[in-house]
Design a protein that fits this description.
The complex is a heterodimer of chains A (285) and B (324).
Chain A (H helix, E strand, L loop, with lengths): L8 H22 L5 H5 L1 H11 L14 E4 L5 H11 L38 H15 L6 E6 L7 H11 L5 E7 L8 H4 L5 H7 L3 E6 L3 H14 L3 E6 L22 H20 L3
Parallel strand pairs in A: 1-2, 2-3, 3-5, 4-5
Helix pairs in contact in A: 1-3, 1-4, 1-10, 3-4, 3-9, 5-6
Chain B lengths: L14 E3 H15 L3 E5 L9 H6 L4 E3 L4 H12 L4 E7 L8 H10 L5 E5 L17 H6 L5 E3 L4 H12 L5 E4 L4 E3 L14 E4 L4 E5 L3 H14 L4 E5 L2 E3 L3 H11 L2 E8 L4 H12 L4 E6 L9 H7 L4 H14 L2
Helix pairs in contact in B: 1-6, 3-4, 7-11, 8-9
The chains are: A alpha/beta (285), B alpha/beta (324).
The complex binds thiamine diphosphate and magnesium ion.
Thiamine diphosphate binds next to α2 of chain A.
C-alpha cells in the first residue's frame, strides 16, 4: 500500500490545522509537555509527513524510506500527531502521551514506537546520528534522503556544529537539516540566553548550503527542500517560525515552551484554530 | 580447575600493549566483516586503528577532535546496519561522551564498539588528565552495555572477535603501556565468563587487566608462605560471571580484587555486589583509592598507587585474618 501524499496546498494547510488541534488535545490529556515549539512546527510537520517524506506508515521499516531524524526531542508531540494522522498508529493512542505503558514517551524512544528513527531528548544527539545515517546510506549507494530537525536552543550545544562540520567535510548531499528558528528557549529569548544571529552567515561560513524561509509557509518549505536537493550539497534550511503559532496567547512567548494548556486555555485555543480552519477552507489560491 | 595459560610466566614474560591486540583484531575483522567501520578522533596512531585505516580507507572516518559527534555518527551508522568501532583515549571516550553513549548507543540499542585506549595510571608521563580511572564505573552502570578489560594483547584480540557477535554496545578498556603476555591463542575466552588462571583454596584473587599478571605473581609468592591463592581473570566486568565468583567465595572463603581503576565503581564493587547478596565473605580491594593519577613512568606509578603483586599479597594476608 503506497502512502498518498498531499499535493494540494489547501489540504496541507488543513492538515497543519488538524495537527495543531490534535497536539493540543494530547497535551491537555497528558497534563505536561511542550506547547510552543510543536505549534510553531505544525506547518513543517504537515509538509514533512504528508508531502516531503517518501515513506510507508504501514511498513515503517521499509528499506528505501526517507529517514526523519528528530534531534530536539521535546517537540515530539507534534511528530506523534503527524505520524498518527499519516497512519503509523491509531489516533486514539495520542491520548496515551506521557502515560505509564505508552509508546509515546515524553521524549521519543526508537525501541518503543515503529517509525521513530532515533531516541532523542538530550539536545544535540540527533544531529550526529543523522550524519551517520547519511554516511551509511551513501556507502551503500542508497538513494533515500535523511532529514534532520534541530532547534535554535539546541545550537547552544557544540554537538550540532561538530556534526555540520563533518557533513560539510564529507559532502553529505543526501542530508537536509532544518533548524526551528523560533527565537525562544526555556529561560527566555535565544538572543538573551546565548545569541545565535547571524545564523545564516554562520552556516555559510561552515560551507553549508543555507536557505532561509518562513517556517510557517508550507509552499516555501517545499520549495526550499527542492532547492536543497538540486544544490548537491549538504543543506541547512532555516525555518523562521512563530512559536505557539495559531494560538494568539501562546505566540512568541517563551513561557509556553514547556507547559500544556489547561481546560479553559484549550477551549480558547481550539476556538481560534477552528476559525482559522474556516479561513483556510474559504481561501482562494 | 585452572585453564591453560602461557607456561613459565613466573620466570619470564614478553610485554605488549593491549591496544595492539585490538588493532590486530580489527585488521582481521575488516577482512571477514564488511559491515565493520572505524571512526577516530585524531588519535589514529596511538589507538592503533591506523592499521585498519591503512588497509580499509573507505571504511575509516576521521571525525576530528569531537568525541560526542563520533559516538553519535557511529550510532547513526549502526542504525543503518554498520558495526562501527570508535576510538579515542578512555578519558575522552567514554569520558566526555557519556550522555551520547547512554542515549544514542545504549538506550537506542545501537551496536557500536568503544575502544577506550590509555586507561589506568600506567599511561604514565601524560599525567592525571589522560589516565582514565573512572571509565569502568561510568560504563558498567549503563543498561545494554558490555564492559571488557582484557589482561593481555592476545585476549584483547580475541575479545574483538567475540564482541562482534554481541549486537549491542561493548566497551574495551585498553592500556597504553606494554603489559605481560600471559595467555595463548588456546586459552579459553568467552564474554561473560571469568576464567580460573590458577587453582587455590585459601583465598581468591580476582583481577582484571594487567593486574591479572600481578595477581599470578602474588599467588606464586604466597605459596612460599604456605598460602594457596586462586587467581581469577575477570575480563568481563559486565555482565559479571556470578557463578565463578560465588564458587570462589564458597570454596576459598576470602577475596581480594585487583584493578587499575578507582576503588569506587570498578571491578571490586562489581564483585562485592554479587557476593554481598549471594555469598558474603571478607573482601579486600587493590585499586586506586579515591585520588587522581600523576606523571611518572608507568612502573613508578603502579608502585606508587599500590597496584603491584606486593600490594595484592598484603591484602591477601589481611583478608585471611578476617576469614571465619
Ligand atoms: C543536553 C540538554 N540539556 C538541557 C536540556 C533541557 N532542555 C529541553 S528543551 C531546552 C531548550 C531548548 O531550546 P529550543 O529547542 O529552542 O526550545 P523551544 O524553541 O522548543 O522552546 C532545554 C534547555 C536538554 N533537553 N538537553
Ligand atoms: Mg527555540
Amino acid at each position: 500500500m503506497t502512502f498518498q501524499k498531499l499535493t494540494d496546498l489547501r489540504q496541507l494547510k488543513l492538515m497543519a490545522n488538524t495537527i495543531r488541534q490534535d497536539t493540543l488535545r494530547s497535551l491537555l490529556e497528558a497534563k505536561s509537555g511542550h506547547s510552543a515549539g510543536p505549534l510553531g512546527l505544525a506547518d513543517f510537520f504537515s509538509a514533512m509527513y504528508f508531502n516531503i517524506l517518501n515513506h510507508e506508515p504501514k511498513n515503517p521499516k521499509w528499506e528505501f524510506r526517507d529517514r526523519f531524524v528528530l534531534s530536539c526531542g521535546h517537540v515530539c508531540p507534534v511528530q506523534y500527531t503527524a505520524m498518527a494522522n499519516a497512519g503509523y498508529f491509531p489516533k486514539e493512542e495520542l491520548m496515551t502521551l506521557r502515560k505509564l505503558g505508552t509508546r509515546l514517551h515524553g521524549h521519543p524512544h526508537n525501541g518503543s514506537l515503529p517509525g521513530i528513527e532515533n531516541s532523542s531528548g538530550p539536545l544535540g544527539q540527533g544531529t550526529s546520528q543523522a550524519v551517520g545515517k547519511a554516511l551509511a546510506a551513501r556507502m551503500e549507494g542508497k538513494k533515500h534522503y535523511i532529514y534532520c530537525l534541530t532547534s535554535d536552543g539546541e545550537h547552544n550545544e557544540g554537538q550540532p556544529w561538530e556534526a555540520w562540520m563533518f557533513a560539510a567535510k564529507y559532502k553529505l548531499s543526501n542530508l537536509i537539516a532544518f533548524i526551528d528558528r523560533n527565537y525562544i528557549q526555556i529561560d527566555g529569548n535565544t538572543e538573551n540566553i546565548m545569541p545565535l544571529d547571524p545564523l545564516d552567515e554562520k552556516y555559510r561560513a561552515f560551507n553549508i548550503n543555507t536557505i532561509s524561509v518562513d517556517g510557517n509557509d508550507i509552499s516555501a518549505i517545499l520549495n526550499a527542500v527542492d532547492s536543497a536537493k538540486k544544490s548537491g550539497k549538504f543543506s541547512m534550511i532555516i525555518l523562521n517560525t512563530i512559536p505557539g503559532k495559531g494560538v494568539s496567547f501562546m505566540e512568541k512567548k517563551y513561557e509556553w515552551h514547556g507547559k500544556p494548556p489547561n481546560d479553559a486555555e484549550y477551549d480558547l485555543a481550539i476556538k481560534e484554530l477552528l476559525s482559522e480552519r474556516q479561513r483556510i477552507e474559504n481561501e482562494t489560491f | 580447575m585452572a585453564v591453560k595459560i602461557l607456561e613459565n610466566i613466573y620466570e619470564k614474560v614478553d610485554k605488549v600493549p593491549t591496544r595492539d591486540g585490538l588493532g590486530k583484531g580489527l585488521l582481521e575483522l575488516g577482512a571477514t566483516h564488511p559491515e565493520v567501520v572505524v571512526l577516530c578522533c585524531d588519535l589514529t596512531e596511538s589507538t592503533r586503528v591506523q592499521w585498519f585505516a591503512e588497509k580499509y580507507p573507505d571504511r575509516y572516518f576521521e571525525v576530528g577532535v569531537a568525541e560526542q559527534n563520533m559516538a553519535g555518527i557511529a550510532a547513526g551508522m549502526a542504525s543503518e546496519g554498520k558495526v562501527p568501532f570508535i576510538a579515542s583515549y578512555a578519558v575522552f571516550s567514554p569520558g566526555r561522551n557519556w550522555d551520547q553513549i547512554r542515549v544514542s548507543l545504549c538506550y537506542s540499542e545501537n551496536d557500536v564498539k568503544i575502544i577506550g585506549a590509555h586507561a589506568g595510571v600506567s599511561v604514565g608521563p601524560d599525567g592525571a588528565t589522560h589516565q582514565a580511572l573512572e571509565d569502568i564505573a561510568i560504563m558498567r552502570c549503563l543498561p545494554n552495555m558490555t564492559v571488557l578489560s582484557p589482561c593481555d594483547w592476545i585476549e584483547a584480540k580475541k575479545s574483538t572477535f567475540h564482541a562482534i557477535d554481541n549486537k549491542l554496545p561493548v566497551y574495551f578498556r585498553l592500556t597504553r603501556d606494554k603489559v605481560p603476555v600471559i595467555t595463548t591463542e588456546d586459552t579459553p575466552f568467552k564474554i561473560g565468563r571469568a576464567e580460573v588462571f590458577r587453582d587455590g583454596s585459601d583465598v581468591t584473587l580476582v583481577a582484571s587487566g594487567q593486574l591479572v599478571y600481578e595477581a599470578l605473581i602474588a599467588a606464586n609468592e604466597l605459596k612460599k608462605e604456605g598460602i594457596s591463592a586462586r587467581v581469577i581473570n575477570n575480563h568481563t566486568i559486565k555482565p559479571i560471571d556470578k557463578t565463578t565468583l560465588i564458587n570462589a567465595a564458597k570454596e576459598t572463603g576470602a577475596i581480594v580484587t585487583a584493578e587499575e581503576h578507582q576503588v569506587m565503581g570498578g571491578l571490586g564493587s562489581a564483585v562485592a555486589e554479587v557476593l554481598s547478596e549471594h555469598y558474603p565473605v571478607p573482601i579486600k580491594y587493590v585499586a586506586v583509592m579515591d585520588r587522581f593519577g600523576e606523571s611518572g613512568t608507568p612502573d613508578e606509578l603502579m608502585v606508587k598507587f599500590g597496584l603491584k603483586s606486593k600490594n595484592i599479597m598484603e591484602k591477601a594476608r589481611e583478608v585471611l585474618k578476617m576469614k571465619r
